[in-house]
Amino acid sequence: EVRLVDSGGGLVKPGRSLTLSCTASGFSFADYAMSWIRQAPGKGLEWVGVIRGRGYGGTTEYLESLRDRFTISRDDSKNIVYLQMNSLKTEDTAVYFCTRVWNYYMDVWGKGTTVTVS
Amino acid sequence: EIVLTQSPATLSLSPGERATLSCRASQSVNRYLVWYQQKPGQAPRLLISDVSNRAAGIPARFSGSGSGTDFTLTISALDPEDVAIYYCQQRGNWPLTFGGGTKVEIK
User: Fold this and answer.
1) Distance between CA atoms of A71 and A66, rounded to whole angstroms?
2) A60-62 and A70-75 as β-strands: parallel, antiparallel, unpaired?
3) Which 8-state DSSP code applies to residue B96?
4) CB A101 within 8 A of CB A81
5) Which residues of B touch A111 (CB under 8 A)?
6) Do B48 and B89 touch, CB atoms closer than 8 A?
7) What is the pLDDT of residue A88?
8) Tens digits of per-residue pLDDT, A25-54?
9) Which residues of chain A lie closer than 8 angstroms to B96, CB-CB?
């Protein structure tokens, strides 16, 4: 079974850092791009960024407004993708979803982890 | 950035009725348009990729059409389990963007 388990969310003060993790199973993780999507309370979906698979060098793309503060990385030996978030702001409060990416659409989603900046 | 505008914001229909959801792009995305379904309290799930390709396990009552800037998601006969918010997403340009969503309710 293809599965993504997001974790690491919590309550954090403005200006602090937090790192989210997503553990994948059931597929050849290293071959897939992975993305983070966030959803503020009562709002729609917002793409955060993507990290490509080993065939594309693990390169990254980000939403421009987040590029200076957010970093996506991956550990293919552990099947984990990370989202490091620095200088957090109250507007970063959201549920963060880890997703598997196929042709730059999200074909598998984790259940999400909640980040509250307050 | 490509802006996706979804309409209507809310659609309220009776079971068995046809639901038509619209997604309009600010510039052409060719056929790189995807639909997701998010049921209350759940993560989104892939519904349709590249305009009209249903994902695995998606019932045949869901269909998609369109190209360029105008796209439609149709639910041929609404089932109570279809209550959800439906989002479109374009994958043709960076950054990837989503529409604001259409909420489908049962009358």
Assistant:
1) 9
2) unpaired
3) P
4) no
5) 42-43
6) no
7) 98
8) 999 999 999 999 999 999 999 999 999 999
9) 35, 47, 50, 104
Residue of B nearest to A112 (CA): B43
Candidate from A50, A62, A109 with C-beta closest to B44: A109
Q: Does B40 touch chain A (CB under 8 A)?
A: no
Q: Chain A residues contacting B, CB < 8 Å?
A: 35, 37, 44-47, 50, 61-64, 97, 103-112
Query: Could you give the CA distance from residue B107 to residue B102 in angstroms, rounded to a whole number?
Result: 15
Return the structure tokens found at B54. 């249903």
Mean pLDDT of chain B: 97
The three-state secondary structure class of A8 is: coil
Q: Give the mutation candidate from A105, A108, A111, A113 for the B interface (greatest B CB count, under 10 A).
A: A105
Find out whether B23 and B73 touch, Cβ atoms under 8 Å. yes
Could A45 and B49 be called an inter-chain contact, meaning their C-beta atoms sit closer than 8 Å? no
Using one digit for the tens of pLDDT, what is the confidence trace for B72-107? 999 999 999 999 999 999 999 999 999 999 999 999
User: The tokens of A86 are what?
Assistant: 């620095």
Q: Which amino acid is at B3?
A: V
